[in-house]
Amino acid sequence: MEGSTPKSRDALRAATTRDPERTRAAILSAATAEITAKGLTGARVDAIAKRAGVNKRMLYHYFGDKQGLYLAVLEDTYSAIRHAEQDLHLTELDPVAGMRKLVLFTWQYFIDHPEFLSLLATENMNRAAYLKKSQSIRPLHRPLTGMIEVLLKRGEAEGLFRHGVDPVELYITIASLGFFYMQNRHTLSVIFGENLSAFERLAARGEHICEVVLAYLQPPEKK
Amino acid sequence: MEGSTPKSRDALRAATTRDPERTRAAILSAATAEITAKGLTGARVDAIAKRAGVNKRMLYHYFGDKQGLYLAVLEDTYSAIRHAEQDLHLTELDPVAGMRKLVLFTWQYFIDHPEFLSLLATENMNRAAYLKKSQSIRPLHRPLTGMIEVLLKRGEAEGLFRHGVDPVELYITIASLGFFYMQNRHTLSVIFGENLSAFERLAARGEHICEVVLAYLQPPEKK
Amino acid sequence: MEGSTPKSRDALRAATTRDPERTRAAILSAATAEITAKGLTGARVDAIAKRAGVNKRMLYHYFGDKQGLYLAVLEDTYSAIRHAEQDLHLTELDPVAGMRKLVLFTWQYFIDHPEFLSLLATENMNRAAYLKKSQSIRPLHRPLTGMIEVLLKRGEAEGLFRHGVDPVELYITIASLGFFYMQNRHTLSVIFGENLSAFERLAARGEHICEVVLAYLQPPEKK
Amino acid sequence: MEGSTPKSRDALRAATTRDPERTRAAILSAATAEITAKGLTGARVDAIAKRAGVNKRMLYHYFGDKQGLYLAVLEDTYSAIRHAEQDLHLTELDPVAGMRKLVLFTWQYFIDHPEFLSLLATENMNRAAYLKKSQSIRPLHRPLTGMIEVLLKRGEAEGLFRHGVDPVELYITIASLGFFYMQNRHTLSVIFGENLSAFERLAARGEHICEVVLAYLQPPEKK
DNA sequence: GATGAATGAGTGTTCATTCAT
DNA sequence: AATGAATGAACACTCATTCAT
Q1: Where are the domains of chain D?
Q2: What is the pLDDT of residues B79-96, one digit of tens each?
Q3: φ, ψ dihedrals at C44, nearest 5°
Q4: How much is the pTM?
Q5: C18 beta carbon < 7 A from strand F?
């Protein structure tokens, strides 16, 4: 079972050369894979080291202990999605197009990054104990709400969106509709007797999410 | 660290009398608490036994092993929500009222039963491996989709709901909007700098969810 | 693995009727099977009870504890071979025929009763600790040496056997030649790459043992 | 109960230095003692570790698990006797002297190495399940039968031995006569009321075994 | 910077035995 | 006489972490 974890290309190079940067990256990548697959308590330090192709002692050298490594994984993972969002340049688009782009990007991101879903589940089982200790994560999120706020304000002014929508509440709704589906698709597929991971099913869900969000944003007076 | 886990009333009675029914229930209840708090790998068999106030050997007597106990918890937990839904008698209400009742019930259920959220997160990290083994869970879900289907059909006929809504997709959306919020409220509170667990915040979210769902269901021609 | 132990006919009757004699016999028979298959430490009290089709508590009722049960098995097993030997009525035969009959009987007994071999191995790993406690086993063996002594004396007087053969030493030799082969046939088959359990192989070994014993007994002056 | 198991000299050195070779040897030696004293199921991993003076975890580091350790003990023990036999250089002696040397060596080896007897008993209760998995044991035995074959052929040619003696059958007979006696001397001493472990008794048995084997080998025409 | 050996507290599980009915 | 629930000590094995080189 343990034997099947293949060394990544990073891992192979880390084993042969003395490249601290690469060693660190290999550990982080291996840790992300292990922890998101098995949870924090389920992940094994030995398995991470083997997967990274690195001596176990190195984990402690670079990250202090298992918890430090976990925190690094958490920060790294949050950072990735927030930076990807920045690259969307939503505020340069018109409100409806911008909102649609955000919704679809978010949905696609959850499809492409199951490790993000998994990590959040783990961290919330810990009641965000590690996240609270992080100095770097909180500031990452200001641009996100800012961006949504701009879109909402402009849409409101142009009569495209309803009044009084809370940007945080809205973002949570956007995330919910994709996150829950992707995270729980295994149990949902069983209880409903349908394969929710099928490609067409995912596309249909994306369209559904757009409809739900946009229907909600539509101003009532237009009806 | 965990020495303070208090014995429940069930536990105290199970310890003094020879009542298999009660012993089994005490174990199941303690296991649910432990597993939902720490995950399957994080939960400790010793802690479950101590919390239930029974000898550790009894867990194995009644449930075979830790995995068997986990499966029992899973079945028990799923059964509870599905039976509570049946008690709503939704099909006796008019479509909009029925839908609203389902949405609010679901939201309130997630607030009241954090163990349900937690357990689903755990099971999905296992890719539903245990759920797939259960014989009893699948049939539990037929009435749920049936109930929603009836509401949708009637609403559609009466011109209250849009056409072509998929009951499974809709239920997933209803669940998403509450589940994600409650499950991830710890991390969300940190990253957005707001206390999402506050009482008024929960009430507001409930109202928001209703609006989102009903806005989506509204037929486009009415707008 | 545990599921395959079938209840014997004794076991089935013991379960339905209140027949102490039969219950006791069923337990003894099940215990013999378990203990000789897995050794004293390897045998499980639960497995014995299940195999006997009897409540575990009954083992304690009839035999005190696991060790008492083991001692009963030991006495029962020794008693069986010694009584079978008595039934040979060796002293009524002429010396060579009598000796040959003893040798072949012993060999056949080991073939037919692997549990005897197994139990002796177990008891000798305990340095005969239980056997020493038994009151009934020692007296069982006087007829055996007596019988051999008679044969040797008569054979010696008739010039058929060499002088000064010690009956105990001779019996040990007779037993050795069959016992070792049967007890260790599994490892011997592996290390020598031959199937020592094959029917013809067993027959050949029986003839070989006879030859060895009789060659030894032949008086040197005859050569 | 077993608290008095003293640390061997190997064990004491292994505890103080970081010497993998010695640690491994100390574990193997301790395991041999424990397993041969109590059988595979009776042997305790904790007891082995304590006796070896190493941390329990090291057993798993070097040998995988208890079964792997047992297999190593088995291979090590078989290897020892087979190499000791090679050192006899039997084929350089005349047939009768060579055979006598083999017989007496075998007898003395069983006296000196009770662990060999015990281990074979254990392995045969397992129906040689572990031995069958070993890659290294089978080849060890070819020289033994080869050696005996040479002696038999030469003895036959010189008219000293009878025709048609099977080397495997003969070796089993030689081993039987000593093995059974040593392995079962505890029960035999009880049932026959004699101390079969007494020094003079062992010497007498050695002489008896030689007589039996050589009497069998003597050609019939000489009689 | 990097390694493999070493540790002690703990993991799920099993044991022979006893209790209450 | 017979049963199934209940027990506590022990079982093989694993964990994150540290030491010596």
Answers
A1: 1-64, 73-222
A2: 999 999 999 999 999 999
A3: -110, 130
A4: 0.87
A5: yes
- CATH fold, domain D73-222, is Tetracycline Repressor; domain 2 (1.10.357)
CA distance D164 to chain C (A): 12
B124 closest CB neighbour out of A37, A169, A183: A183
Burial label for A41, CB within 10 Å (0-12, 13-18, 19+), is middle
State the residue for tokens 């290294």. Answer: D136
- Cβ D98 vs Cβ D153: under 8 Å: no
Closest Cβ opposite residue A192 in set B120, B141, B189 = B141
Q: Which residues of chain C have pLDDT under 70?
A: 1-18, 221-223
Q: For residue C2, what pLDDT is reported?
A: 33
Per-residue pLDDT tens for D82-131?
Answer: 999 999 999 999 999 999 999 999 999 999 999 999 999 999 999 999 99
Which of A41, A106, A133, A184 should one mutate to test binding to chain B, selecting the residue with the greatest count of B CBs within 10 A?
A184
Overall average pLDDT of the A116-124 stretch: 96
By CB neighbour count within 10 A (0-12 exposed, 13-18 middle, 19+ buried), where does C31 fall?
buried
Fold of C1-64: Arc Repressor Mutant, subunit A (1.10.10)
Residue C106 amino acid letter: T
CB B37 within 8 A of CB A41: no
pLDDT digit string, tens, across residues D162-184: 999 999 999 999 999 999 999 99
The residue among D167, D96, B121 whose CA lies nearest residue A121 is B121
Q: Contact, B38 vs B119, CB < 8 A?
A: no
Q: Which of A140, A205, A223 sits opposite B223 (nearest CB)?
A: A223
D80 sits within 7 Å of strand E by its CB: no
Give me the torsion for CA of A122, A123, A124, A126, rounded to 10°.
100
Please give the Cα distance from A42 to A36 (Å, whole number): 9
Record: contact D138-C190, CB cut-off 8 A: yes
Å from the B57 CA to the E14 C1': 9
Q: What is the C-alpha separation between C131 and C141, in angstroms, rounded?
A: 13
- From residues 18-77 of A, list those within 7 angstroms of strand E by Cβ: 18-20, 23, 54-58, 61
Contact C93, C101 (CB under 8 A): yes
Contact C190 D137 (CB under 8 A): yes
Q: Which residue, among A69, A73, A44, A70, has the nearest Cα to A59 in the 3D structure? A: A69
Cβ contacts of A177 on chain B, cutoff 8 Å: 173, 176-177
Alpha-carbon span B98 to C126, nearest angstrom: 76
The Cα of C209 is separated from the nearest Cα of chain D by a number of Å equal to 8
